């Protein structure tokens, strides 16, 4: 939302965002009240779609973003509450439904904080200004003598005070202040921001309150399962529908033809029953003849062989070419390192499987949805486009999500529920089984990197060549058939150390596949950081240099490295040097002597506007058992931490997620389908494998406040792998770690 | 379909379901006790953990016909005021991220604390290794169990102590 739209004095209104429908949508608030209500009557103060203060003093704030465990339902309302000078105890948070009045409502890309922070400060500050004006008017005193604090306006000269509830009716009649008269606080006076504040749903969570999508229950609701072809994109030829329909508790069973959109409504068979168990039991009796299609010939081993054959060959496209890599590799005194790195397809495996409750109402030709989604507007769009329902006829309630990690940016499960609901005269909850969830994820793309690099006679990195082999789907775009790499499966020519080296060649080749792919926590970064910081470590060791010293040299002396094109982003190398030096200091880098089997490793990465450096300390037993003893994390995510508890939780979680993924995460593709079916075959990190200690530090810099759902994850894997090398001399070039024998003698 | 009388959270509840229905789905679909969560259906994640006669049990693998007269305790019945030391500690230390697994974590931890009121880190890791947390809040779960053990030993009214944070944190 633009600043101009937020405060719009000409309309005497301040708004949630810019957009055509907005003024109408807000017509129930301040001005309407001013015209219709007598000031003496108790009225709620609703200066914007996000804030409402009742005459009883209850401050209701809307959380517009989906809560997926990143803590946004607590942290963004804190931003409003800070400038509103309201006591957090008086605040009630309500999850907003999908509504254009709130502006963008996606939870992805760690963008919720940076895109809303300043506007939400202004929102709170404007509402506070009105409350102060109302108090001054009530007392007949100058505004300058009044101050808002702790849900009251205080009159300094006399010590009188009025609660926000007492002021609500009068404040509701006041015209909006112009932008200049809204004074935002000096951050040093913050009462709430930067404190440790517990999640607003914690009390409900610990008593088992039904907060999640899977917990939705409506009168007369039915339960659905949906079986898709195990091989991606396969179509239904026939199914024993009559037999399934005759099973106990089954209300209906039918084929959904679906579309060819791998991230949309895939073909399948729906079973609708009176209970979840009746649906699951009936599914065991379901027999489907599939036309598996061309994808059934695809396998991970086949792709790996194709990727191996590309080693030493030119890439299909060149992403960056600076200087002359070949000449630098051949230069006298140069030490050359060649290595190939690879990582598999992996799943998001959120604990709450994908689900959605849908209610088709034929009488109004409208659809009501309840979805644990990161991307509600996209879900609404997909349903509208796939099922030809006008968008305005589709309402969507955002429920709490049992984990996201990028999976719920896709809306396949929403359109499936909607398609099933259209055939059922009742609300219906579609719930995927764990097997559905693992085998029909939109996977993080696997990848292969063929690297060559050199250090010159002075030990400086003099050449870097990466041929990245990635995965792509064939899609139709503007009438053309094109190969579109999976989310996170495209390398930017600016990705570090692009921009810094005199001789660098980055190339990319995409392998066409029929595997659906999607964003996975810190897309691209989650694997690129591992490859590049492992290889930097290889070059440092080839040069006989300290990995910290070489990294600082690579980052150079300049502060800001501009992007190579308008679409890129600047990289503040100065901020990265600062977090790197700080993590070295906090971890005692280079100061400790480790016995064989123990070691330290480091890495840094810039992603999602955050600058993060990490040092891992590991112990590897002689038999090859890894234990991460400590991880030190230093983050620069701008001038203010919003919720310190939430921020620490995100960093700890990112570190542990990075470790579990490094250790275990792997899906195998055979005959066009995923082999692993449940969490026994797809292990997630368990408590006893967790690091003993994670030290979380934040460096404040005078830069905009940014998000923390993702950027602390990418540096973990290379930091641990570099520590494993320091401990054992074993260089990990293939993920996950379970494929490597780390034993030593 | 068959009739079953179940002892759940101190009450007798009657349900009419197929005998092979896992207790998990009886709780969730028939009895509106949705705090117990589905995660895997094969006993691999622990999100569905309830107590049967005090023993932590995977309700997704427990056919209702096998429950009989055993006393079933779910997260909703753990404490009448939702003030079990673990529930207090979870709120005090802000343990959850997405929170989906936490009912199962708390139920497993509650059984641990009953048997071992002052568990070590190793005891906790051993007891809790069957409960997955995809957000990986394990450090806070561990700290939360230690804190709950403290609360249980010396009941406190106002949970304000920050001494038991997982480790010392740098201010901002």
UniProtKB/TrEMBL annotation, chain B:
Which stretches make up the 2Fe-2S ferredoxin-type domain?
2-78
Superkingdom per UniProt = Bacteria
The alphabetized UniProt keywords are:
2Fe-2S, Iron, Iron-sulfur, Metal-binding, Oxidoreductase
Q: What Gene Ontology molecular function terms does this protein carry? A: 2 iron, 2 sulfur cluster binding; metal ion binding; oxidoreductase activity
The protein's name in its UniProt record: (2Fe-2S)-binding protein
Protein species of origin: Kinneretia aquatilis
Supply the source organism's classification: Bacteria, Pseudomonadati, Pseudomonadota, Betaproteobacteria, Burkholderiales
